[in-house]
Amino acid sequence: MTERPGGKITDSGEPERLTLDILVVEDSVVIRTALVGLLKEHNVVQARDGKEALAITERERFDVVLMDVQMPEMDGFEATAAIRKREQGYRTPIIAMTASAMEEDRHQCLAAGMDDFLPKPIRPEQLRRTIGQITQLHGCSQSDSAPDEEHDSLNRQPSADVMDLELARRQIPGGEEGVRSMAQLLHDQCPILIRELETVECPRF
Fold this sequence. Notes:
Blueprint: E1 21-25, H1 29-38, E2 43-47, H2 50-59, E3 64-68, H3 76-86, E4 94-98, H4 103-111, E5 116-119, H5 124-137, H6 151-155, H7 165-171, H8 175-198
Helix pairs in contact: 1-8, 2-3, 7-8
């Protein structure tokens, strides 16, 4: 884990922003890429599933783990339980990420040993706020003074046939180039995702 000055104050009187070591555990390459872009000021390592996350956390210690709940091979609950079982002297802050945003889902994540909860789709300002809160609780002085995005604009949903470019530019890092890169990634991944969906057996009603 990166050595830090621990609460150093800058000339402006504000706490120095720390570079954190963050593990992103997510099976979707699109979501992983978006999160890496949002966390570009930190040291980010990626894992595709719970098993890979276990192997990585056995070698390295992280300030924060962003853990997807639903994954193949080993889901987020199993991975969290395995991490907690072998921890000694240091508790890794684990933030759950799930598309299920009901209150019972939050309680399930906390009961499984996770420290906090982020509903999908991940909102940039909520991601920063949650990481800031959890690192403060675990003794890191993480300050992010970036203002929150306007609530109304974040809740706007694009229509089925039009991409909201203005919203995309605000939420995807890198401006115009970032939007183009993400669009290309989505374009490249669509055939793979379609093939995966075709193999899913839908329940009969």
